[in-house]
Amino acid sequence: MFFVNPDSRVNRNIPNMALAFASTHYGCQVVDHNTVPDPKNRFLDIDDGDMVISVRSLNYSEAGRIAKAYKEKYPDARIRSLSGFLDIQCCYPFLDFEDKLVYDRLFSDEFPFPDYELFDSIELFRKKWAEGKWNFPLMTSLGCPFLCTYCASRNRQYYMRSVDHCIEELKIAQKKWKFGSFEVLDDCFNVKKDRVIEFCEKVKPMKLNWFCTNGLRADLFDEEIARSLKESGCAFLSFGIESIDPETLRLVKKGETVDQIERAVNIAVEHFEHVNGYFIIGLPGSSFEKDLRALEWAKKHRINSHFSFYVPPEKGDRHSDSYLPDDAIFYGEQARPYSDSYPQEEQMKLYKMTEEMRYREPPRENIIKRGLRKLRNMISG
């Protein structure tokens, strides 16, 4: 048996964590076309009777191509999707074929530390980690108990590894890979305040730079957490802001107020040079003017702003008549709008206007000003 990670066209610097854990458990190699896309058909070089593909919403068509090509060359091969403990990563859901391999152990300290040497992309990861260009991935918890309607991770059972187990993984991996930074890939890292502070206390002696890349909850963020993060080596954090319009926040069941968001951001910018806010274009109840105000709000609060497109639930449901069959990508270079909240041409205009502000590390103030000047010129033009 071997695994295949199809080219998903985004997040090439982040391993497929479902495959990372499952391949370690089964002791199987991973053909990682997402991090190393070419040669495009190298999976065909493996003569094995059992191929398992990690299928996601954004690579469904490519996964189908891989399955078809392999079946044509090896007619007797069994082809399955990987299913189990992880059903979403970086906002994109995992999907199933009719035939599937289920790795459904509960996410806990019983999970093995991922063996990335099973990935055929390991040399690239090794190089980028050692150079500090990519961050080593760490998943400390899984799931999110909140009800945000736009998010595929909503209302999920929350599972945690112990802090000690996570620190042990970091120590072993750092000794092996010599990385200088890591990033936390949790759906919501700050669900439990005590756990965040414990993690900070125990990672601090390692003297590593690290990043809260995924969006923190603003209503669960405070001065104590900010100090703990900063003192432990955290150099960059993000908030899932989505909108600064009260009615839009209510409609999407964000469970936060604009005041709570502003308070969290103000605390963060006092402690961190790099603060990022994730925003969504085209949410229910939104408009071009409201989404534009979010950009102005980000500039006022001196934070980087990363805008992505909203995908209505029915368009993300493969069983719906209005499902988008072309593997919807809602952030990254190939992203496009899917919401009908206001004209999609205006949504695309706003997305392009924020292009200079979508880097992982926030741009300097003069770059923000150039981006806003470009935005205003496009509006007036």
Number of helices: 12
Radius of gyration: 21 Å
Number of strands: 16
Main sheet: strand order = 9-12-13-14-15-16
What can be said about the biggest beta sheet? 6 strands, parallel
* Structural class based on helices, strands and sheet pairing: alpha/beta
Mean pLDDT: 91
Q: Quickly count the domains.
A: 2
Strand content: 15-25%
- CATH topology category name of the largest domain: TIM Barrel
Task: Tell me the name of the CATH class of the largest domain.
Answer: Alpha Beta
Helical residues, percent: 25-40%
Distance between the termini: 57 Å
Morphology call:
globular
Query: CATH homologous superfamily of the largest domain - what is it?
Result: Aldolase class I
CATH architecture of the largest domain: Alpha-Beta Barrel
Q: What is the string of helix and strand elements?
A: EHEEEHEEEEHEEEHEHEHEHHEHEHHH
Low-confidence stretches: 359-375
What does this structure look like?
Helix 5 runs parallel beside helix 6. The longest helix is centred in the last third of the chain and has 16 residues. The strands form four sheets. This protein has a six-stranded parallel β-sheet with strand order 9-12-13-14-15-16. A five-stranded parallel β-sheet has the order 2-1-3-5-8. It is built from twelve helices and 16 strands. It has two domains: 102 residues, Rossmann fold (3-Layer(aba) Sandwich), CATH 3.40.50; 253 residues, Aldolase class I (TIM Barrel, Alpha-Beta Barrel), CATH 3.20.20. It is globular. Helices cover 35% and strands 19% of the residues. About 4% of the residues have low confidence.
